[in-house]
Amino acid sequence: ADEPLVLGIETSCDETGIGIVRGHTLLANTIASSMEEHARFGGVVPEVASRAHLEAMTPTIESALATAGVKLTDIDAIAVTAGPGLAGALLVGVAAAKAYSLGLGVPLYGVNHLAAHVAVDQLEHGPLPKPCIALLVSGGHSSLLLVPDVSEDVISLGSTVDDAAGEAFDKVARVLGLPFPGGPHIDKAAVQGSGTAVAFPRGKIDDGTFDFSFSGLKTAVARWVEAREASGQSIHVPDVAASFQEAVVDVLTRKALQACKKYGVHDLLIGGGVAANSRLRALAQERCDKAGVRLRVPRPGLCTDNGAMVATLGSDLVAAGIAPSSLEIPADSSLPI
Ligand code: KG4
Ligand code: ZN
């Protein structure tokens, strides 16, 4: 009970996430999402997201405090996502965090969104083995990271050179006439299809890097569907969904395990919204078992953007005796890992 009570604020995309933790004990993880407002545009509209964060901030903090059964004045430290993400959206969270930090007289920790995605798994599976490899796949990022220690700097091994994995799911779903965000719909449709029905390209699969590329795959699916339609042939959506999905998760898991092998690491963590994908989980488990690697995937509510991940990393920084951020800390949309 002597561990500090940390409140985390996440506003890098469309989720206003407020998390409250004590050490690695989760007390609240409250989320207000503006996704419904974006759905009709087929993608997140930055200006709409910023405004929604502004409106949701105070009520979401109040709701999280009520869930945790604590008072604002009980909070010992504030952590906030400083980047990367949408500039205007980040700014709302960072400004709120500074105000609460100043008003309460408690330290402020500006944290990296990707490092927070890694840290959150500890709420579910306990301390992270170090080092570990983390594969972060969402609508905004696709990265392979080497994590020496949560309080040490995470090293980026590679990332997407074009679309993020979730973005590819969303764009292909659109081609197939499925709603936005399309990842869960493709996952569901794919269950009824065959992953080997169409041989779609696996970008950069054996190029010797830990980078990804999904835009060629997305285009290949669109061209394949167009060609079928032009020749009057029908499209079996589940087969196309399953074959596309197989191409994505084949590359993701293959590169993640290559990274484990190269760095002699025996623990793989998968996070981000795409970690909810059932085929990704199954293939990752299969390949990890074969390679003698332990797999950790947090439950879906901790995989997608949330405030608990920010609070968890903040809590680790406090515990490691890391100096807090200054009140001048900027919101940095392209903050490097
Ligand atoms: O982490 P997240 O909630 O937000 C960020 O983008 O940061 O991730 C959302 C992304 C969307 O692209 C969505 O389509 C994808 O995660 N996603 C999935 C699944 N569930 C969510 N992709 C594939 N299969 C799923 N089951
Ligand atoms: Zn994220």
Describe the structure.
This protein is an alpha/beta fold. It folds into 2 domains: 130 residues, 2-Layer Sandwich (Nucleotidyltransferase, domain 5), CATH 3.30.420.40; 173 residues, ATPase, nucleotide binding domain (Nucleotidyltransferase, domain 5, 2-Layer Sandwich), CATH 3.30.420.40. Helices cover 45% and strands 18% of the residues. It has 12 helices and 10 strands. Strands 3-2-1-4-5 form a 5-stranded mixed β-sheet, sandwiched between helices. It has a 5-stranded mixed β-sheet with strand order 8-7-6-9-10, with helices on both faces. β6 and β7 form a beta hairpin. α6 runs parallel beside α8. The chain is globular. The structure holds 5'-O-[(R)-(carboxyoxy)(hydroxy)phosphoryl]adenosine (KG4) and zinc ion (ZN). The site of 5'-O-[(R)-(carboxyoxy)(hydroxy)phosphoryl]adenosine (KG4) has 19 residues, from α6 and α7. Its EC number is 2.3.1.234.
